[in-house]
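idk why but the lab printer keeps eating my pages so im just putting this in chat instead. protein + beta-D-galactopyranose:
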Amino acid sequence: MRFWATCLSALALGRAAFAVSNNLTTDVTWDPFSLSILGQRIFLHSGEFHPWRLPSRSLWKDIMQKAAAGGLNGVSLYAHLGLMNPAPGVLDFDGLRSMEDAILEAQAAGLWVTARIGPYVNGETTGGGLPGWMMSLNATLRTNDATYTQAWTPYWTAMAKILAKHQITAGGPVILVQVENEFDNVRTTPATYMVLLEQSLRSNGVVVPTTHNNKGLRDITYAAGTGAVDIWGIDSYPGNGCASSWSAVVTNYNDFKNTSGNPTLPLYSPEFVGGWFDPWGSTGNYAACRAKIGPEFERVFYEALWAQNAKMINFYMYYGGTNWGGLAAPVVYTSYDYGAAIPENRVIGDKFNELKLLGLFIRSARDFRQTSFAPEVTTLTSSADVTTAEMRNAQTGATFYLLRHTTSQSTATVSTTLKITTKDGAFTIPQTSGSQITLLGHDSRAIVADYQFGATRVLYSTAAVLLGTTIDGVDWLVVHGYPQADAGYEVVFAGVTGRLHDDDSQYYCESPTSSPPFGALLMHDSICQAGLLANFRITAGGRALLSVGSVRLLALDTTVARTFWAPVLPASSGTFKQFAEVGSNATIIVAGPALVRTAAITNKVLALTGDTNRTTTLQVYGGSNLFSSVTWNGAQVSGGLDTIGAWSATLDGPSSAALSFVPPTLAAWKFKDSLPEISTTYNDSRWVTASKTSTFLTMPAYPRDTSALLGEQDYGFFTGNVLFRGHFTSTGKETGVFLGINGGQAFAASAWLNGVYLGSTTSFNSTDSDVKNVTLSFPSGALRSGDNVVTVLKDNMGLNEWSGPSGIKQARGIVGFQVQGGANSTWKIQGNFGGNTNFPDKVRGSLNEGGLFAERAGWHLPGFDDSTWESRTPVQGLTKPGVGFFRTTFDLSVPSGHDVAMSFVFRGGGATRVQLYVNGWQMGKYVANLGPQTVFPVHEGILDYHGKNTVAVSLWAVGNSTTDFAISDLQLKVDAVLRGGVIVQVANPVWSARDVF
Ligand code: GAL
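predcted complex ->
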């Protein structure tokens, strides 16, 4: 079946002339222009999503549907080895760790998958995805070291089998598999490690092309058989991140690709700036970052990347999500929102919608896929302040002029004319005397010439094209522009005679009026005479629909265009029937709703699904003969043609009950002390005894008063809070203790002697050290005769990402310890219950809990009976340095049929470190004196919107001042209310007794 489909589509669309395959499959091929899938050339337009950063799994569907609705045709998925392989011999691909489920959701939404499976991924996650147990190996990580090879093989083999099952040759969406990440970091030649990884993929059945994400413009190309993958690409984060100032676009990717020996490959950007992450202690915020790397930035930088001839682009991140539990590396706090197109709370806005405009254009601009690189020049523009690339498709003649400021950061408003060369001759456009193309501040414009869609050729359009498509035999061109930009936009259809008119067959060219005759468009009579079909001004908020022959021109204010959607209409059959282009070329133009997720026409019923954020006018453009009724989220809606000929109906916004929904105030808190370990009577006999005298962790040469080493990874503790108890026998002469403590940047530690508080230390932010040295004096009277115990509580902010082979293996724990003036100490260690091998919570996984007593006992879980606990709130807090645990429960009854985004909002506190547990999931670390995060989005699924919820916080007063002892507020707030959403299932396993010690 598929063989024929392949041949037919290749015949119909012209198989890429010099397509190269990896000799294992021809389902995915490439040439210097682009990828081809099943013989069809595609522009891979993809977004990065880490499913494991969205633990409410039902919502993976939401992200995938948004990506497809946003005009993307692919997703790129990092897998997390550390989560999936928490201990040697333990592989867990279930639940939130399921790559398979993520792939199936991508497939359902019609998205191709690039699987980026490590073993090392970076990604600002703990250990860059490598688990703590690998750091204790006698091995150099990320090399062909035999011990390391043995360590990754079980995960890699199992993952390869999953991918083989879901690759395109088996009817799945996986088209590319990335081997390693930024291997430049560990470059060796030959790269036998890369060869081993690739061979293992092949021997486990993966046949699709392998890829690699090169760290920027650094040459890591290898000869065949020495580490080469099929397609490598360049990652790049230009523009100056979240900082408000812009830096320039990069203009030498294409040169680099060609000169570094790979002119036969398409230009691939496996990671292109979709936002940036924010560190502990920053003064930034993701909302500001989303505005900076926002609509204007997307247009300028993404079109500049097109000008470099990139035809395979993945935006990192498209949805960032949450570093819940111990997922973060120390470089980032709980939120991994990233300022991405889809915010952490999943409520989309202008950034998403601008990228949608670019995505829908690229999806429909088929001829762009085979355009050649042409250097950006100022010779075609009348203004030297405007630069353009002239990218021509040699086969079809279609040409794309990508205009931007010559100084790409410029905020000046500049106007220019443009010399274009078309099949019908050369023109300087706009042709209307005195008219110009205007870039407004940070702006860029893609201008098409000889742009073919359906049976129609657009000679040129100075307005940006949203899409050109054929609906029920009628060719539709949708264009948009800013009203403040060009005084007159021009769209010229080639070979079309007649005059544009509206649905009443009124010809408007003949009688120019001072007011726009039909909404947005003002026709210039002189242009009509000259044979131009449309010259129009776009009015604010305007939309206008014109016809000439069988062509429709819909012209929109760009801000109106952002409310437009073009969902794929799935074909009636075919394995990939829901995939744009390869499976279906059919689309329908829908405007109005905050989101249009899916569309399908069966038995003359147009079924649309999506979300509304207010009472909304739904408009469907074209295809009105294809359907006789319309449903929205399954319910019939009645409507009819509006004044400009769109089928229109009114959709309900959120119900008033949903809009007025207020979550309950968090009250009725219960409290219990969570630091029994500081007591002299605490029995630590079942704790792990520190007995290692050698280590393969990176352990600095600090003073230590015994040979035992206290690197916590060596004892199976990789995440969260870890407790240490050091015993020594006093001679009465001991004066204090020296401690060198490593918890990663932004960690803290507190110490007690025999229950008496000694002091604390904090690494303040991402530029501070990850190890802190302190000498704490013993207060008089604290020493006892006989056994004395120093208890140290420290947290682990995550394992380091790659910072050289020894940097990633940096020991967390107590790296130096010496009782001043005293004898040797012996140490016991305790971290999360069961460590990395026997952790009890298989659903939430190995990184959810740390080693606080409360966590070990499971007090954070729903169903634990706290009825005997004292009533006390986190605002009342503690009375001294230490750790308290607070619990409360409340019912939620959120009106159904809505997607209600909620966040927990903290206020106040000093040196106060709080972990937020929601129905057993550790959803945030609030560090009051570091910040900056105070708002913690928690999704439905983690919260039960129709039942009882348990919220718990651990509150660690790291200092001795009363401001450290409490926070001033914690509440649950509504961020946004939409009618719609996807169905969310809740799976929050409850407490069962643990043999805690
Ligand atoms: C890239 C890396 C990603 C991520 C990104 C920054 O270089 O490949 O994993 O760390 O930087 O967010």
